[in-house]
Each structure stands twice: as C-alpha cells, then as structure tokens.
Amino acid sequence: MGRKVVLTLHRNDLRMHDNELLHAAHDSSHSDVTHVLPLYVFDERFVELSGFPGYEREGPEARTRLCGFWRTGAFRARFLVEGVYDMRTSLRQRGSDLLLRFGKMEKVTTDVVKALIANGDEVREVILQKEVRTFLHTVMDGAKGLARQFYTEELAIERKLRKALREVGVELRTFDQVPLIHVNDLPFAPEAMPDVFTPFRKRIENLPRLGRPPFPIPSPFKPYPRPPSDSQPWPGYGAHIELEHRGLEYVLHCLLRPLQDTFQLRAGSEGKNQKSAFPYAGGETPALERLEWYFKEGNPPPVARYKETRNGLLGHSYSTKLSPFLAFGFISPRLIVKALDEYDEKFRSTQNTYWIRFELLWRDYFLYAARKFGSKLFTLGGFEERTDPKQAAIKTQPGWWKQWDQDQPLVGQTDKEQPAVRWMQGKTGVPFVDANMAELRESGFMSNRGRQNVASFLTKDLQIDWRLGAEFFESHLIDYEPSNNWGNWAYIAGVGNDPRASRQFNPVKQGNDYDPYGDYVRTWLPQLSAVPTNRIQCPWILSDADFNKYIPKGSYPRKPVIEQPGWKAHYTRRGPSKQGVPNRNERAKNLGPVILGAAAAREQGKKPNGVSTATQTAGGETDGSSRRRETKLNGIVRAEAKQNGSGGGGATKARYLE
Ligand SMILES: Cc1cc2nc3c(=O)[nH]c(=O)nc-3n(C[C@H](O)[C@H](O)[C@H](O)COP(=O)(O)OP(=O)(O)OC[C@H]3O[C@@H](n4cnc5c(N)ncnc54)[C@H](O)[C@@H]3O)c2cc1C
User: Fold this and answer.
1) Is the C-alpha dihedral spanning 410, 411, 415, 419 positive or negative?
2) Is the pLDDT reported for residue 621 higher than 70?
3) How far is the CA of 323 from the centre of ligand 1 (A)?
4) Is 475 annotated as a binding residue?
C-alpha cells in the first residue's frame, strides 16, 4: 500500500519548537498520514548557487536589484547553512530527516511531489510558512489613471508553487507564524494599521495577551519517507550522492566560492571573527542556548540589565542578540515572550522585560507596515509616497539624492574615492561610522546604535540614495530581514513612518557618548589604537605631526569625507551643541517649494540658493538617547519613548535631542 505523505516546506522557520508546519503535519486532522517529508530548498534567487559543480542556474545571479551586491553575503550564507544542518540533525535525532535541494523552490518541490506520486505514494498536502509580504499590491498609475497590481516576490513564488502543485492534484496550505502577534489577533485590519509606531504599539499593548502560546514539538515524529532506493534518490540538484555525504563544509564551500567582489571581503569564509558581538553559529540549538543564557545565567541574569546595556557596542551581552535567530526562524518570537513572562513571574520585575517586548513590537510594526505599504518598502519615496505624497514628490526629485556611479572604477586612493565607496569601505574618515562599517564587513553584525548612525550618515550627511545602504545591509547582515531592514532604512532616511523625518545623528557626539574611551573604535580600527582618547572620534583635528605620529602612514584618511559645523562643539567634549541648521528633511516639511526650486536648479547644474549640496544638512544632530517617561498602567510599568535609540516614534518638540 502506498504511503500517505505530508510535505513540510521550510523557509525562515528552521526550528522544531513552535513550528506550526510540523505541528499541523502531525496533528489529529492528519491521523491517517503515515509519513512527513520536511524539505529545505536553497533557492537560487536568494543564494548564489553557481559555486556548485554542474549547477545550471535558471535565472540571473542572486544579486541585489540596484547595486548588484550578492543578496546573501558570506556571513549570512554560513549562518544559514549552519542552521539548516542543525535542523537536519534535530530531525534525524527524532527519526526523521530534512531533504536538502537546490534550485527554484516551486520547481524543486513539485519535482519531489511528482516523484512521490510516481512511487505510488499519496501526497496529502504541502505546508508552507506564509511570509508577511505575501500579498497583492494595487498601485494607481497616475499617468494612465489605471490601477496596476504587483506581486511581492514572495507572493509570486507562492502563486507559482500553488499552481504547479494544483496541476499534480496537491494543495498548498500556508501558516502565518512570522510576527509575534498573529494577523487574526491584531486589534485592527492589517491594511488599516496605524501608520506610526506609537499608536500601533498602544493598540497592541491593550490586547489581553502578547502573542499566542508556542506550539509543542510533535512527539513522536512521523517517519521520513525514504526514496525507493539509494540509486533513485528524491530528484533535484543535491540528489548527487556525494553531496549528500559531504555535508555542511562542502555546501558552505560551494556557496562561498562565488562571493568575492570589490565590497565583499573574504567575510565569513574564515569563520567567526573573534571580536564579533555575535559569536554564535546559526541554528535552533545555538538560539535556545542564547535564550537560556540571557534569561537564566547568573544572578541576576543578563536580561536584568537590558535597559541599561541595550545601547552597548562591544561584547555579546549588551542586548539579546536574538535578531539573527529570529530572521531565519531559528527561534520563535512567541518563545521569547514565554521566557519574558516566566522571568516576570519569577522575579516580579517588568522594567527590563518591558523594553524587550517594546523592541519586539518594533519588529512586528515593520513586518505589518511592509504588508500594508507593499512595494513602497523598496521605492525611493518609501511609505511616504502613500502617507504624504507631497513630501515624497519633493524627496524623489532628481538631484535630491546622490547616486553611486558604479561605472566609475576605484581609484585606489581613499580620499579620492566616491563618498558612497568610502562609506561601504568604512573609510569615511569619521571613526565612529567607519568602526561600525568595519564591524559589519568583518563580522556580519552591527549594533542598533551603529546601524542608526551609519544610516543617518549615508542618507543625511552624504545624501546618498538610501537604497544603496539598504542593499549593502541586505548583503552583509546576518540578521537581514526585508521588512525590518528596508523599513528601518526608510525610517532613518526620512521617507518612512517617522513623524520626525529630520532625525539626524551627530557621529562625533554619538562616539563621545557611546564610546567615551574609544574602545569600540580601537577594536574595529586598530590603526587608530595610538590616537589619544580625546581625539579618537575626530582624528582630523590632530596636527599633521601628531597624525603621522599616531596613525600608520596611509592606513586612515587624513580628512573626513564631510565635516558638519554642528560636530565642532563636540571635538573638545564641552557637552552638547545647541546650534543647528535644520537638515534637508526638515526643510522639506517647512520649505517645500524652495527646495523644489533648488532641485530644479541642481538639475540645471546650478547651486541651489548658493548653498553647496554638501552643506545643506549642516549642524543637524540627533542623539537618539532615551528620554522615557515611565507610567504605571494596569499595575505594569509601561514606558513611553519620547525618543529612543531605535526610533521611539513619539513626537518631540526638540529639534535636536541631546
Ligand atoms: C538601518 C537599520 C537596519 C536594520 N536592519 C535590520 C534587519 O535587517 N533585521 C533585523 O532584525 N533588525 C534590523 N534592524 C533593527 C535592529 O537594529 C536589530 O533588530 C537589533 O540591533 C538586533 O539586535 P538585538 O537582537 O540584540 O536587539 P535587542 O535590542 O535585544 O531587541 C530585541 C529584538 O527586538 C527587535 N528590534 C530591536 N530593535 C528593532 C528595530 N529598530 N526595528 C525592528 N525590530 C527591532 C529585534 O527583533 C531584536 O532581536 C535595523 C535597524 C536599522 C537602524
């Protein structure tokens, strides 16, 4: 008699705990199912597969759309492979397995289903995690007055898969399990969610509970359907017997092989950087170890200091470091909330746990905002094209953003490279920015504080198209998640949902505040090790003699790529500057028509209003430090972020925060 099989197709849900796919495949509605086949497909659209001998790609290389960076850089590729093999081990320990294949997800899956059917098996259904951005998006075409519909990339793939499976008589079932708050539990229709974070958060916080309880791990596991014979394995690239046996290192080697180009260091190919703030391997096992360590190790455990340490830069203990695990679904957000609840219960303290929940709501906020605004997540004018079309029109005028001229070859001299290139290389000459970029390039991680600073520097100081930054992060970050990355970038660039679009960071002040002894800069820019602490954030003000004395020749730019007047007050650390010229996003709010004129002038090759574009953001500074008001609500300490490091979202009267 043929086997009755359910196929669970895994993407960013590579875990045993709280996995609705595995739960559904084993639950009572499938009591007559005899086998479960878990499948993972390395999809050529997201990960470059040309390093596998004999692999024939169907589509183009897995590169980002605008800048052509590898979509999955070396650190994330390693992290992913580690996680996939970790899940495979866990499944094998339970008598199951994980089938690994390479290609296009919809094609590979359908081929496996066909092979099962040809073998006389009955395929009951294929189960898949629904990605949040799986929806149809309607856009009005202004010129033609027509409504045009776009598929998100995820929806396009899901539709193709559903169609191909239907043709062989098999249904696809999807489950929503990426956000903490299930879509059906939202206190508003997803398309009517509040545009701004604070009202979104407040509505969610009024729910009776934050997220559903996690699903248990199925026990026992239904057996894995072995192929008819070793000589006839399940189809698809990867069926090759050698690949099956060579394992993780071989797969990794093939994935890393093509990932060498100008801005991609040999990152990841040599394993973990000892200095990294994220020293973990990928997978559910390390994720659970981290959770355990963070919530239980020591008395009190690290979670007890989250609020005070979350803006740290060095070492792994300063924040939860759960984002990379969340991005691949190695850990479920509901399990994190369970750990938070248990901690609250045990220690009767909600101070720190509140702030972790708060941050997790930022994650949900960006996930749902991406769903609401669809393709606007990736457009130059961002969400603002829908929320404030007039502002968006100003900010999408030609000349508003500078571009990276990719045809211009590298000149090999730092101070002559294009500003975009200096930013990517971590050679802007502004140590706090460069140290963060070095950390990203050499470890695949960067703190939230660092991300805000380098993003602000690229978009507000250098005025470069923010999508370059988003794509660079997409390529390099191990915790890359589309909605959270692009949403945060748009937010900082002033085209997202930040009610205060003028948010701008002063990297000298930020360096003084968050790296007061220069330890962080010295860790990632060892060539600056000998620079005295009072000059470590602004080495350009050293005399020539001192610069040459402290910094090895040619190892660091003599001058920063840009110097803002507002930084000067912080060279001598006299405290925060009160002066400031509004940055251009602020001007866009107040002086839209003037800037429109300026943009037009720039297009004609003139300097707008006699001001060079480089100085238009002069003086703007945002510290981003916490200004929180804590109130008691329902017996729980709640905190209002007037302005917080991750973009508190609350309106504030101060133009520049100290
Ligand atoms: C320009 C920019 C790009 C970013 N790109 C990503 C990305 O691709 N993927 C990603 O997961 N996060 C991204 N973030 C958000 C944030 O920087 C990281 O989630 C955070 O640094 C991860 O470290 P952690 O897990 O120790 O965070 P913690 O401080 O411990 O926070 C706990 C969790 O809350 C969530 N969280 C915290 N801050 C934010 C935030 N600002 N937005 C959304 N969720 C948040 C994360 O899931 C995080 O794991 C980006 C932020 C900026 C400014």
Assistant:
1) negative
2) no
3) 6
4) no
